[in-house]
Amino acid sequence: MNIAKVIVDVPASSINQTFDYVIPERFLEILKPGMRVIVPFGPRKIMGYVVDWTNDSDFNNLKEINDVLDLTPVLTPELLELGKWLAEYTLSLYITAFQAMLPQVLKANYKKELERISNEPLSDQLEAFFAGRDSVSYEELENTSVSFSQIQRAIQDGAIAVRYLVKSRVTKKHVAFVRPAVETQLLTEAFEDISDRAKKQKEIIDYFIDHPEEIELNQLIKLFKTTRSTINALQDKGLIVSFKKEVYRNPYNDDAFESTTALELTNEQRRAIEPIKQHIKNDEHDVFLLHGVTGSGKTEIYLQAIQDVINKGEEAIVLVPEISLTPQMVNRFKGRFGSNVAVLHSALSYGEKYDEWRRVHRKEVQVVVGARSAVFAPFENLGIIIIDEEHENSYKQEDQPRYHARDAAIRRGENHRCPVILGSATPTLESYARAQKGVYKLAVLEKRTNEKAMPEVDIVDMREELHAGNRSMFSRRLKETIDQRINRGEQAVLLLNRRGYSTFVMCRDCGHVKECPHCDIALTFHKLHNQLKCHYCSYEEPMPMYCPSCSSDLIRFFGTGTQRIEEALTQLVPEARVLRMDVDTTRRKGSHEKLLNQFANKEADILLGTQMIAKGLDFENVTLVGVLTADSMLHLPDFRSAEKTFQLLTQVSGRAGRHELPGEVIVQTYTPEHYSIELASQYDYMAFYKQEMQIRKKFQYPPYVFLALITVSHKNHITAVKSTQQIVQALWPLLQHDSVILGPTPSPITRVKDRYRYQCMIKYRHEPELRTLINKIVQQFDEDVRKNDLLISVDMQPYQLM
Ligand code: ADP
Ligand code: ZN
Ligand code: ZN
């Protein structure tokens, strides 16, 4: 067994296979599958993952592994298998899948260097470039006048060579510590010898006589209000030694969390948790859908189930949406399990993330709380996986590998024979339908634990505002209520659905929105040709002059950005202090928390923002939540738009009045009669589910069918259209009779960075060979992809249909 099968770090479909390498004698004992290695590949050296062993290879003249980067595997056998599955399931490359499962810093960094290999003098220019050095980084060439042909000649002459280096980006943090260098007995003798004038030295020795263990250097200096030179003096005398020790960057101060204990569960909670506890006890896998309104005690159930898992000596993964990974959420888990919790989310620095990951890797914690990719935490004895707010879109990764965390979680749950819990107040139709069919087990929490009613939702018809002569974005009702709340010293949250992005046309008089007669989605406005297009099926019609429903000429494009609203708001309520929270104001690390803290400290009266403000917030003083334009989400060109609207409205409503002060929700819309708005205001999930399922059935959308979205992009418009056309034509004859391909049609965002985007969508029930077929067809374009800059992306079960 001295040949390793390696997946190399070359993201190209022609390289998407293992390569065999000989394991040199010196690595035979230490190398294991799941470790990263450096291997020669063509003229370069690159990083790779060892995935398997073998005794013999079909190839001759195998090269040797150059180096081993890890002491213990970074991918467990289970994760290696999962990575393979992930790549095949999402039609991605193996290397991409593996890298998606690991922290960023474990990716390799490649450097190119020019090295001088003979003592012969070089041309003057090259001598000046090397400036006495043996090797120089390739990048330095850019800023010089040395020509490429000069370099080539020198390489041919054997004077210099190009070297490829692989660097691991891993950075570990080291801190200086000191400890006594001799026994206590000798310290005591030394204490006597030190002159009384060296007072600090004596104090420190005295300290070490009582505390012979190591202490952080900085801490010691602080403790005795002394300086480095005192420490150095003691070190010179051979009494103490200083040394560097690796420490973890801990982004959370574990002492700062107030510790909590398990609450006495309500009857409802007890009924819900019982089967989960049974599964934990019996090492049994099942998926549980925990359906409960905000405040119904889902998190408490998670905490108590995790406690069982910990007691069993096993481990837990908790996924929460990126955006709600707020300090408030982290507090709940740290408060119950203290330093037994690692937290993984994208606001951490690469170094911090790596350290948290290593605490998991080294089994120093039993619980990890994190965003999507935490589902790959390298635990080996998983006892439970929890996905909170399972309906959140952020669980779907929108670039390669395009996986959904739910699928990966269920796969791991099967591997480890442990339960997977999906929690939500508004489950996806896919999950709820599975629960109805008995594929998932359903657990329901109907009441809030504090028995408080959900806040009253008031729907304001914006058409009536217009008819009453109010053309602003704020209804009279909303304006009055804001004034009233501010006068009472209370706060308001105003939600704007989406920043800037909007594609539809709506009649301001009657709220009419043009929809595709075949697909039940809003038509997309294409300004260039003044056309309305369906981007699912390519139906199109001219932009009407008058509303086809009420003949008004107030039919037009719909869209407003947060910044404009902020201006309008400041004019409308000049006395209010407004905080704006959107992607622009939260780009910097920590700015999200900062804004929330300012608001919590009542430094502002109104928090205005996109949906990122809808999640996880819990402010005692917020008594008003206003939704400015419920329509802009409702008419996204996406068959899930009604579901997303329902989820968002339910979620924001849950934010108001969780505490003593009663809350109120005001929803502004041009289509108050739409079922998603009406039913969200009544908190009636079941009625919404039933109605939406009928529509999904009628127009054939998930959960009744599966989807695959193929998007093609190219600088040249015609190439993009043609290639998509060719894919559609190649695929049609190979599909089952009940499958359908829609398109080619332009993507709703038709042009991005000067590339034209076209797409086609496959709707299918049963296509066991679909992935293989798509792969084969896409491979026929390999040459265009490599040489002609054509991009083809495949998304199995897409969430973003833009
Ligand atoms: P969810 O996760 O469904 O929004 P939480 O678990 O956050 O609900 O519970 C809402 C509130 O009710 C929290 O303040 C929590 O501490 C409290 N709570 C949960 N379970 C109980 C219980 N059994 N008894 C008393 N209070 C509870
Ligand atoms: Zn109209
Ligand atoms: Zn259509």
TrEMBL record:
Family annotation (InterPro entries): DEAD/DEAH_box_helicase_dom (IPR011545), Helicase_ATP-bd (IPR014001), Helicase_C-like (IPR001650), P-loop_NTPase (IPR027417), PriA (IPR005259), PriA_3primeBD (IPR041222), PriA_3primeBD_sf (IPR042115), PriA_C (IPR041236)
EC number, as in UniProt: 5.6.2.4
Pfam family, one: Zn_ribbon_PriA
Keyword Transferase attached: no
Record's keyword annotation contains ATP-binding: yes
Record note on quaternary structure: Component of the replication restart primosome.
The family this protein is said to belong to: Belongs to the helicase family. PriA subfamily.
Protein name: Replication restart protein PriA
Organism: Lentibacillus persicus
